[in-house]
Amino acid sequence: MKPNTLRRAYLREATFMLVIARLAVRILPAAQVFAWANRPLRRIRRFAVDEKRWVAWSVETIGAKPWMNALCLPRALAAQAMLRRRGIASRLCLGVACHEGAMAAHAWIEVDQDVIVGGAEITRFTRLTQFGGGVIQS
Q1: Using an 8 Å Cβ cutoff, are 11 and 61 in contact?
Q2: Distance from C-alpha of 138 to C-alpha of 131, rounded to nearest angstrom
Q3: pLDDT grade, residue 136 (50/70/90)?
Q4: Could you tell me which of 29, 58, 71, 80 has the fewest CB atoms within 10 Å of its CB?
Q5: What confidence tens digit (pLDDT) does each residue in 50-99 have?
Q6: pLDDT above 50 for 40
Q7: For residues 55 and 138, what is the distance between their CA atoms, to the nearest angstrom?
Q8: How many angstroms separate the CA atoms of 98 and 78, rounded?
């Protein structure tokens, strides 16, 4: 596939997944959203390095657009869904921080030991929990 065609395909998928993730965060109960995020993979592909980068790039690019205005949780959910489709195990992590007397929360995605989505701010956040990362054993 040509690079321009591949880039457009990832951007279209990221747009669709971000819209779905934003709707899920607004409409569904948190327990249902995080139960979905915690499902194990049915298959795993270990050597999909380029696909991880494409997913991260496309979600961050579309999520930063003013018309999308996607915060960290919908971005993380969309990236996890895109990675799951490709058989790449990922963890959706949630953390909190206290900044000038106010609590702040953040969500990010980890693949292996790398933070691929939402990693710019995680040094100041304390991880509370994580969802996903498992594979169904046959």
Answers
A1: yes
A2: 21
A3: low
A4: 29
A5: 888 999 999 999 999 999 989 999 999 999 999 999 988 899 999 999 88
A6: yes
A7: 28
A8: 26
DSSP codes joined into one string, 36-66 = HHTPPBSS--S--HHHHHHHHHHHHHHHTST
Q: Cα(124)–Cα(131) distance, rounded to whole angstroms?
A: 20
pLDDT at residue number 138? 45
Q: How far apart are CA 20 and CA 16, in angstroms?
A: 6
| Segment 18-37 mean pLDDT | 94
**How far is 11 from 138, CA to CA, in rounded Å?**
34
Range of the domain at 112: 3-131
Distance CA(127)–CA(129), nearest Å, equals 6
d(CA 52, CA 94): 20
Residue 108 falls within a domain, yes or no?
yes
Residue 136 forms part of a structural domain: no
The answer to whether residue 50 is domain-embedded is yes
Distance between CA atoms of residues 13 and 58, nearest Å: 8
Pairing between strand 102-111 and 91-99? antiparallel
